[in-house]
């Protein structure tokens, strides 16, 4: 069985985030041999090209954290039919300095939850377009549209609906297979 370390980014800094609960659920459901670790974004300042010559330590740490993992799951809310600004800001840091994009060749999956019927689908389409531009191999199926209902996830990340838990297990397995496929392929210099 493969040993994998998967980083996850939560695209919400809300203290009551349902997407953080979903992240906790994924942590709990990770298969044996797979470890999920958070890559935090909340302390990143607003990105500016002025930083390109000398990135602040927090941004260096963020990029190093992505470099250190075998794959990344981005777990995000939808804001105004797109991704939240805090997540876009983190992605902008990841893309710079020019030529040193952190997601180049990095297996990546997106998933998110909201109470809405389309469950962050619009945000995820925007996010996948960004990741495609970054040259990140991205999980196509299953798509991670999780509609939250009251009590679906506990604060500790327990999933109270068996079908949802089964879906998340399958989602993690599919992403693990993608990560393993790319682990065998050297990333272009
Ligand atoms: C500025 C803003 C815009 C939002 N836009 C959407 C939206 O386009 N689609 C949607 O399903 N929910 C939208 N919501 C509701 C979020 O899904 C809901 O607040 C959710 O709890 C956010 O995720 P979080 O709890 O992980 O922060 C929006 C919320 C905010 C604050």
Automatic annotation (TrEMBL):
Its EC number is 1.7.1.6. Keywords: Oxidoreductase. The keyword Iron does not apply. Residues 6-145 form the NADPH-dependent FMN reductase-like domain. GO terms for molecular function: azobenzene reductase (NADP+) activity; FMN binding. Transmembrane segments: none annotated. Gene3D superfamilies: 3.40.50.360. The keyword Oxidoreductase applies. GO terms for cellular component: cytosol. InterPro entries: Flavoprotein-like_sf (IPR029039), FMN_Rdtase-like_dom (IPR005025), NAD(P)H-dep_reductase (IPR050712). This is NADPH azoreductase. It comes from Microbacterium trichothecenolyticum (Aureobacterium trichothecenolyticum).
């Amino acid at each position: 069985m493969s040993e994998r370390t998967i980083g996850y980014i939560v695209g919400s800094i809300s203290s009551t985030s349902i997407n953080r609960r979903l992240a906790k659920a994924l942590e709990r459901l990770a298969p044996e041999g797979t470890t999920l670790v958070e890559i935090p974004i909340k302390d990143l300042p607003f990105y500016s090209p002025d930083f390109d010559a000398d990135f602040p330590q927090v941004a260096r740490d963020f990029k190093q954290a992505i470099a250190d993992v075998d794959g990344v799951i981005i777990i995000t809310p939808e804001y105004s039919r797109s991704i939240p600004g805090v997540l876009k800001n983190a992605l902008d840091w990841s893309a710079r300095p020019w030529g040193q994009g952190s997601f180049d060749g990095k297996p990546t999956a997106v998933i998110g939850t909201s109470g809405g019927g389309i469950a962050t689908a619009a945000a995820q389409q925007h996010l996948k377009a960004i990741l495609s531009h970054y040259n990140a191999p991205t999980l196509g199926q299953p798509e991670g549209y999780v509609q939250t209902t009251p009590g679906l996830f506990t604060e500790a990340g327990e999933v109270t609906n068996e079908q949802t838990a089964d879906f998340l297990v399958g989602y993690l397995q599919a992403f693990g297979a993608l990560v393993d496929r790319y682990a065998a392929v050297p990333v272009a210099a």
